[in-house]
Specification:
It contains six helices and eleven strands. With 244 residues, it is an alpha/beta fold. The protein has a four-stranded mixed β-sheet. A four-stranded mixed β-sheet has the order 5-6-8-7, with helices on one face. The N terminus is likely disordered. The protein has two domains: 65 residues, no CATH class; 154 residues, Zincin-like (2-Layer Sandwich). It is globular.
């Protein structure tokens, strides 16, 4: 009688050293994978290794170490992250705004100008500033989304059942079979034509739940900025994930 030896559960990550720097590699095992693969997320900076079902963690570690230079190079090319803190600059509807902490007393977060430069003025205790900025951006994107949704509802003669704001990493928007739309709050950081295009794109799925020629014809009849918005997202979309 043979007794199968059960492999212990995999660690969720491994740490490797490259030229004195510690690099963390997230491990994900997939039965359908045919070989070891490495990728570095441009959105989060996370290093992810995919393992086939029978590949040991020790073999994965050796593979990661042998690619330490590649990992370090990819990480070095990622744009520097920008925290929501006083003095930081972030694009609001595609226009650079500096965050100004105007007071420790709680007050309204608002858009203003300082030396003829646009600023996002925040009044609160310092530890709460990042949350206040985040809340403001989410309120603004909800307003812009509502405006665009109303426009395309009138054009289509139908609207979504629900709109949800998320911090999605792999897509800017989505439409469910139930007619619910999901969008990334980070669209408020892009030029308005990009948000408007994403709304048109997802609302076109209310009628065509596919990417057929009928879908693209419908989208182009709704939105005049398809090519410009797609081009902007291809060039700049990943950079929106550096904020916050």
């Amino acid at each position: 009688m043979r007794v199968a030896l059960l492999r212990g559960s995999d660690p969720d990550h491994i740490d490797i050293l490259h030229e004195g720097a510690k690099l963390r590699v997230t491990l994900r095992r997939r039965p359908t994978a045919r070989r070891l693969t490495l990728r570095v997320s441009s959105a989060t900076g996370e290093v992810v290794m995919t393992l086939p079902a029978r590949t040991s963690v020790s073999v994965a570690r050796t593979f990661a170490v042998s690619h330490g230079g590649w990992i370090a190079m990819r990480l070095a090319k990622l744009p520097e992250r920008v925290a929501f803190e006083a003095g930081a600059e972030l694009p609001l509807r595609g226009v650079a705004h500096r965050i100004v902490h105007r007071s420790e007393r709680s007050g309204v977060t608002l858009l203003a100008e300082d030396d003829d430069r646009p600023v996002l003025s925040v009044a609160c205790e310092a530890p709460h500033l990042p949350r206040r900025v985040q809340d403001f951006l989410e309120r603004e994107v909800r307003k812009d989304l509502a405006t665009s949704v109303a426009t395309y509802t009138a054009k289509l003669g139908q609207g979504p059942k629900r709109i949800t704001i998320r911090d999605t990493r792999s897509r800017w928007g989505s439409c469910t079979a139930r007619g619910e739309l999901n969008f990334s709050w980070r669209l408020i950081l892009a030029p308005p034509l990009v948000l408007d295009y994403l709304v048109a794109h997802e609302m076109a799925h209310l009628r065509e739940m596919n990417h057929s020629s009928r879908f693209w014809s419908l989208l182009e009849s709704l939105c005049p900025n398809v090519e410009d918005a797609e081009r902007w997202l291809k060039r700049n979309g990943a950079s929106l994930h550096r904020y916050g």
